[in-house]
């Protein structure tokens, strides 16, 4: 499964509680552009509109050989998810104040998939705690390598 892009910022800004795999509705040149690695998930998020999931602000660069076909790089794209999963996530988002954040975009069996995370926003002190834990873990790992 080649990973075309990942949203590392999402793990810093959100506490990911649950993950979901979704298909994405794309045009031909967009698929070629994504497979070429010309995609960014920074600042993107998923919303629910008319009982469907939509991905906003995902930047897919233009595919040069298909320059005749005009595509907006940041257009809204529909996500393809089972109805039961959509209903479950709608309930969680509306009741708990959670967000759907894309974590990565990858290929599975020749299809482009998006991994979504149901996340709760971190406060500033939570982010500092995460950074502190990561630094301590890194220092312990270095100390173990030096002794070993």
Tags for this model:
alpha+beta; Small Protein B, Chain: A; 148 residues; 4 helices; 7-stranded antiparallel sheet
Structural class: alpha+beta
Main sheet summary:
7 strands, antiparallel
- Mean pLDDT across every amino acid position: 86
Q: Indicate the proportion of strand residues.
A: 35-45%
Count of discrete alpha- or pi-helical segments spanning 4 or more residues: 4
The level 1 CATH classification is Mainly Beta
- Poorly predicted residue ranges: none
Radius of gyration: 18 Å
Secondary-structure element order, as H and E? EHEHEEEEEHEEH
- Cα(first) to Cα(last) distance is 34 Å
The helix fraction, in percent, is 25-40%
CATH topology (level 3) name: Small Protein B, Chain: A
Secondary-structure blueprint:
Layout: E1 3-6, H1 8-13, E2 14-24, H2 28-35, E3 39-40, E4 45-49, E5 52-56, E6 59-60, E7 77-80, H3 83-96, E8 99-108, E9 111-121, H4 124-147
Antiparallel strand pairs: 1-8, 2-7, 2-9, 3-6, 4-5, 5-7, 8-9
């Amino acid at each position: 499964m080649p990973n075309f892009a990942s949203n590392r910022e999402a793990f810093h800004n959100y506490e990911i509680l649950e993950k979901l795999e979704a298909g994405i509705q794309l045009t031909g040149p967009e698929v070629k552009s994504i497979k070429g690695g010309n995609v960014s998930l920074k600042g993107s998020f998923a919303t629910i509109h008319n009982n469907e999931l939509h991905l906003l602000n995902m930047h897919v660069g233009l595919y040069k050989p298909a320059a005749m076909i005009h595509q907006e790089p940041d257009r809204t794209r529909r996500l393809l998810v089972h109805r039961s999963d959509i209903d479950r996530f709608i309930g969680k988002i509306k009741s708990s104040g959670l967000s759907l954040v894309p974590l990565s975009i990858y290929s599975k069996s020749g299809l482009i998939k998006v991994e979504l995370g149901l996340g709760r926003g971190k406060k500033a002190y939570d982010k500092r705690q995460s950074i502190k834990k990561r630094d301590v873990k890194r220092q312990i790992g270095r100390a173990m390598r030096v002794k070993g």
